[in-house]
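Notebook entry, structure prediction.
Reason for the run: the old model in the group folder had no record of what sequence produced it. Starting over properly, with the input documented here first.
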Amino acid sequence: MVRQRPVGGGAPVPGPVYVHPVEVLRAAGVFAVRDGEPNQYREHVRSRDLSVGTYCIPVGGKDGQHPHGEDEVYLVARGRATLRCEEGEYPVGPGTVVFVQAGERHQFVDVSEDLSIVVVFAPPEGARD
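New structure, fully documented this time:
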């Protein structure tokens, strides 16, 4: 059985959600936080092996995430900030790709331009919590 998650977010669907063999996410690149809104994470795709979402932090916003039980890959689509982790601090901007191992503490700090990130979890986010 194939169930599609609403593009652009929507309420999480309990249990695994399998996408078509090819899934085109037309709205996944159109994401931002409106003035005065808090950070936003939206999941767009979930399969047995991974999940893909978008994460936005406005200028001056605080990243309150905690270490995840899954490996993560971040692709910065736009904006600028610093990624702080146990090993040090790294500037990130458009085109930056970051791998974060499961369990590693990390946060985006010093957000100087609205940050928009594509996030890939493997296995899917929450699978190991």
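Summary: Residues 1-129 form a domain with the Jelly Rolls fold (CATH 2.60.120.10).
The old model has been moved to the deprecated folder.
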